[in-house]
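Following up on my earlier message about zinc ion. Here are the inputs again, as you asked, copied directly from the submission form:
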Amino acid sequence: MAQQIPSNCDPSLVEIAKQVCSKEGLDFESLTLHQTRGLLYYWCSTCAGTHPLTDLIISRKKKICTHCNTSIKLYATSNKFGKLRRTIFFAHLDRMVKR
Ligand SMILES: [Zn+2]
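Thanks, got it. Here's what our run produced:
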């Protein structure tokens, strides 16, 4: 199963994404690799590449790329996956705090 999930992605992030998707009435398993990446990854213009959301941290209310310490905007895309990705990211943070 699950060959649509990028291999270098944290399994706990995938788990969160599945929960968020099912709340939104979206079947995570039926997403394409492209869509899955859109949910689990952010684009960093300084690194000129994508990283998993787990590589993003909150510092002084800004989202920071841990690879280059640049502030990242998660709102860049206007499609529905942009909004879902924010939800997934904050659910992930929530889990980190509670751990
Ligand atoms: Zn970066």
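One observation from looking it over: Residues 75 and 82 are 6 Å apart (CA to CA). Hope that helps, and feel free to reply on this thread.
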